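Appendix C. Worked example: Solute carrier family 13 member 4
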Amino acid sequence: VKVFFVICRTPVRLAVPIGEACCAYVLIVTAVYWVSEAVPLGAAALVPAFLYPLFGVLKSSEVAAEYCKDTTLLLMGVICLAASIEKWNLHKRIALRMVMIAGAKPGMLVLGFMCCTVFLSMWLSNTSTTAMVMPIAEAVLQQLISTGVADTQEDSETVEATEDDCLSGMEKESKDSRYPTKRDHMICKCLSLSITYAATIGGLITITGTSTNLIFAEQFNNRYPDAKVINFGTWFIFSFPIAIIMLLLTWVWLHFLFLGCNFRETCSLSKKRKTRREMLSERKIHDEYIKLGPISYPEVVTGVFFILMTLLWFTREPGFVPGWTSLFEKKGYRTDATVSVLLGFLLFLIPARRPFSRAPRTPAGDSAERDPDPMAPMITWKDFQNLMPWEIVILVGGGYALAAGCKVSGLSVWIGRQLEPMSGLPPWMVTLLACLLVSAVTEFASNPATLTVFLPILSALSETLQINPLHTLIPATMCVSFGVMLPVGNPPNAIVFSYGHVQISDMVKAGFGVNLIGVLVVMLAIMTWGVPLFNLTEFPDWAIARNVTGSL
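Step 2, the predicted output written as structure tokens:
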């Protein structure tokens, strides 16, 4: 109520013919609503839609145009593919197969789950991936717990006599504990946290992996339309090494924190060193995979579309060779959204039943149930609706509207002028400060909201300091995903926390290390292979043109 009265009174004091002040007020009000979450994030994103026209910053039609951009269509096409993947259980088959390859040794089991989570999170949302993988991990953990008491002595026989630290880890928990031994509890903590961290890491790899990547891509392309440097291929080339390094370092950190330093014992692939519990866990995973049955026709079609979409994204404008868009006479008309929407649309047309065959197996693997419609498509509109994050779409649109208002009113230029005292800092120091700031704020605020507020400020700062905007914007975009220290940091954290294996203290301790690893790896990337990839040593012409236009 207090916030409402403040909002009602403040415009009277700010209703002056200064465009910058009006735009700043709208920005502050929206940011307060986003950070406090007094209203849903999507509802708060609608604030610019009515305040900008009321204050004369933008026309209502101009604001409305900002809420549906190219990235909205890109997201819709990706969600169509994700709906097909989840409907036909292709994600579950991939996850179980990768875990079967890794084995049931604690260290390798954690690494196997992390690898499959990273891969799935590249294409599905971080939340959906975590919600899908955690039940599989929980089934394995419950199998481990149920056989823990009978296998405690057998476990101790596989450990060397000199390794007293591991033996002490096998001492039993209290009688009211749900875990047979302290070591079992540590394995549950390690595996649970590894999944939420892996989902975050996987979301960094593709431009569609998380909503913050989409927000950056659209705001950057809107602010610098002549840049033509951010696409699926360039982002993947830059972020994939980051994800691999983060994946390995995060696994080592979690292993050290919860399983100790005995990598030989927990990561051995030798069958002779496997305990009965580990063999039962492998059998449980294998049984779950067998329940899926042989690969079905819809799974094959979904897999083909998945590969085709990826290839078309990579080959559209690879940079080092002409892409398939060069085959068309008119240039600049086709984007990654064109590919995703086309393939997503086809999923509504292609029947899920193989031509000239019986009805396909149902997603649950029960061949007794049949689809009454022989021409039922791969996905339905209901399948699409169940996954489509409309709140994120409106939230992203609100960010675009705020950016457009800052540009038209001149607020971004004014902010840049206030930051001129920082001109003495080297570029790497500016980037590091930006990374640390956004990674701290995003622990308590929504990732998309945090990035939406910071992107215009960092853009103006880069232009003022004559730094390539990508030098600060890309690291900030990645670091805003590192809100992994608290359950409220992001939805995957909350999902993992709800299973009850970890406490907040565990998340803070493990998350701080992951956060630090992420910032350091991103800084390493932007200072090494990011330099030639994005030509970061020079202040580019497209940024100069934007700076001159903004000044005018």
